[in-house]
Every structure is written in C-alpha cells, then in structure tokens.
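[scheduler] slot 2 assigned
[scheduler] job type: sequence-to-structure, two independent chains
[scheduler] chain ordering preserved from manifest
[runner] begin chain α
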Amino acid sequence: MPLSGGPATQITFLKSRNTHPVWSPDGRTIAFVSTEGSENCVWRVPAEGGSPQPFLGTHVSIDSQGIAWAPGKRILYPTADLRNIAALDPDSGTESPVLPETPGWKFAPRYAPDGHRVAFYRRAELGGKPLREVWLVDTADGTLRLLAPVARFPIGWSADGKWVYLQPVDRGPVQRVSAYGGPVEEFLDIPRKDLSWGRFDVSPDGTTFVSAGGTESHDVWLVENFDADLPRQ
C-alpha cells in the first residue's frame, strides 16, 4: 500500500505463515520468509504480484527479527540455528556465511545505505555471563566492531549512514547509536501511550518510521447461575 495511504493489495496467497517482507534494490521484487512446505525458506515474488518462487536450500529462523535486502545486492538472514547470518545471491541462489565462527545467537541484520556495512544484534553466554550487544560487520572485508553492549534490535540507519536506529528487545522508544560506537541516545519517543506498538521499521531515506499500533479494550462480566449444581435463585 502507498505510504500516503490507500487500499492494500495482497500479493501472496500461500497456505502458510509468510513474514518479514523486504524490497529488492530496484523495488521490483519482494523477498520474504515462508513456512510453505514445512520449511522456513526465503521466497521472492514480483512486487506487483505473481507466482512466488522459493530459494530451495535456504533455512531461516522464523524468530530472526527480520531479513534484509535493499540496498545490498545479497539477501541477509539469520540461519535456522541463529549462529550466523547468511548472505544469499538472488541470481545464482548460492548462500555464504557473513560472519566468522563466533559464539552466540544473531538477529535482525540491517544494511547501511552503502550496502556493505551491516548492523546486527548478538545474544550470548560467555563464562556464565550474559552478553547482549549490537555489532557492526563490514561485508567487504569481514571487519567486526562492537557498537553498544545493550539488548537492542537494529531497525534501520540514518540516510547519511552515521547512525544506527535501535529498539529495545522488549520494544519501546526508538533509540540510536553512532555507527562508530558510543552511548545509546533516546531519539524517537513513541506517541500515543494508549497504543500497543510493534517493531518499528525505517524508510530507505531514513526519515520515516513505520509500525503497527493497536488498542486493547477490557470488560468485566457477571455470570449468574453458572454452576448447574446450585439451585436457581
């Protein structure tokens, strides 16, 4: 659907769970994760609709907190065991690991505007000590750098590539951290405290934040004569 509003158009009709849609760099294709056929695989479908096609042999964690494509050339996603981030070439269908062997589980890869730096979240246990961290990897040379020791999922980047936007693992206000490391800063306070907000995403130009918000209502009911063994009164 248009960001300016309007009717939504359904583009997949699979009898399965289909999540984490992302755009191709040219905006003509959408990649997503599907449980079709009982396997969590990467699929793609034309943005205007059509026949979706699976990338056979891919195995994605359904709890990956998202996959990534534009502006990078390859589709990124946490592996099924969450031990690494895989890079899929959409032309050849070949898959390769992004990270060296490191302990912990990896989530939520997000490309920088340059298409080669990737922010991601790592959760690990080392020596009985829990680690919750945001990391940056340069896919051009494999360089790894710790950005912040916090439990935050990357949700996107600023247009100039200087800031990584974050959201707490348990959700909450949008924050940011410098791509060169430093303290985490409050950035976007969530409006309408009476709404229940989901995970935020950021537009490619880094200026618009999008999320699903919902309201909840509660009622108190009185049921009379609910116990059939009691005499009616």
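[runner] end chain α
[runner] begin chain β
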Amino acid sequence: MKCYYSNAEAVGTCKSCGRGLSREHATEYPRGLACKERCENDVQAIIAMIERNSKLSATSASLVRSNWISFLVSGLFFIFLGVGFLVAAEQRPGFDLGQYMGFAFIAYGCYTLFRAFKVRKASAAKSA
C-alpha cells in the first residue's frame, strides 16, 4: 500500500480517515496512527473514547451480573401477585379477568425467575 500523501510505502493507516501513511506523514500514538497535522485531534478523541468505553464496559457487565437478586425478588413478587388475583377471583363465580391476570402474573413471575437463575449462572461462569 502506498502513502496517501506521497508515493512512499505506507507503514500503517490513519485511525480516523483510514488513509495509508508513510513514516514521514504519520503521527504515532500508543493505540494508532494519525495523518500529521490533519487527523491528530480526531485520533486522540477516538483513543480517549475507546479507553473510556473499556472502563465502563467492565463496570456495566458487573452490574448486570449482580442484578440477579432483583430478578429473583421481582419473580417472586409477580408469582405472589398472581396467586392473590387467583384467590380473589375464586371468591366470585365464573371465569373472569382476575383469573386471566392471575395466570398471566404467575407465568411472568416464572419467566422472571428463570431469567434470575440464568443471569446468576452466567455470573458464576464468568467469575470462575
């Protein structure tokens, strides 16, 4: 590959614009190259963004993995609510909306519990 600015052989590409760069027309950074006096600010911003996202990625993954207790409590709450609707619906004759809601809440509670244990299992696997 040839340098965009000269006919010299390129040593790499600009992290911002992707053009081939020779040693003469490149500014080197710890995580990439930039077009000298053209893309340096852009490349510095890109590198800073990548480093910031790398730090945040570990934090957000940790929060998601530790979230299993919230799923567990939510699942148990929805099941309890569903049972409450079913008990209240039993007081009235016939099949009514309360029974539908009871079954729906119980089903959603079971799904939420399933998610809780799935998140916990994934968290345990990544910790090991």
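[runner] end chain β
[qc] chain β: Helices lie at 40-65, 68-90, 97-127.
[scheduler] slot 2 released
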